[in-house]
Amino acid sequence: MCLEGEDVSRFKVLLLDLLAEYKPLGFEETLLVNEIAQTIWRKNRFKAAEALAIHAYSFFKSQGEEQKGDVSLAIAQDASACGTIPRCLAAEDLLDRRLWAHFDRLRKIQKKRGFYPWKPLVITEGACDRPADKIAQTSGKEDARSARAVASADRANHAGTRQKGPPENDRDQPLPPQTLVQAEEIDQAPKKMKSSPPDK
Q1: What's the rounded Cα separation, in Å, for the pair 140 and 149?
Q2: Are residues 32 and 117 in contact, defined by beta-carbon separation less than 8 angstroms?
Q3: For the whole model, what pTM was predicted?
Q4: Which of 43, 46, 52, 57 could link 77 by a cystine bridge, Cβ 3.0 to 4.6 Å?
């Protein structure tokens, strides 16, 4: 798969990362993961070829001296010579469509057996008052720990906003003691007026 001059260890790291994330089971899933790794590697190869072509065609001779131009000059000189850059772009587009087709096929196969490489963390309104297991459907101890950490951080942020920010409604703010005393005096005022005899 790797050509001469390419770093084989980088391809192995890419393949191991994909195997660790998707955890293929059986021949078909393993084959798809390998195809995904090879497609990504080929796509990066064409990107490197495109960059090298732009670099090579960006030089021009002026008064017998070689000078470096910009990207537009490189594209113009490549179009008049070999057309390497458009071919690289066409190959990248083809490999990109093949890559996502492999991803879709792998996800459909794994969905049938009930395996999901990742699950989104959905936090709804009032989630800070719920346990972490109800916030997200986690699979494994690491996912549960991360969900609990997010829930605790959300509780801390929620408590901080309650303490620092003003209440959304005036009814949520408790009345001060002086206001309560004044309210009681107002309520008892009609009673005092009825019980006290009129002034002569």
Answers
A1: 15
A2: no
A3: 0.55
A4: 57
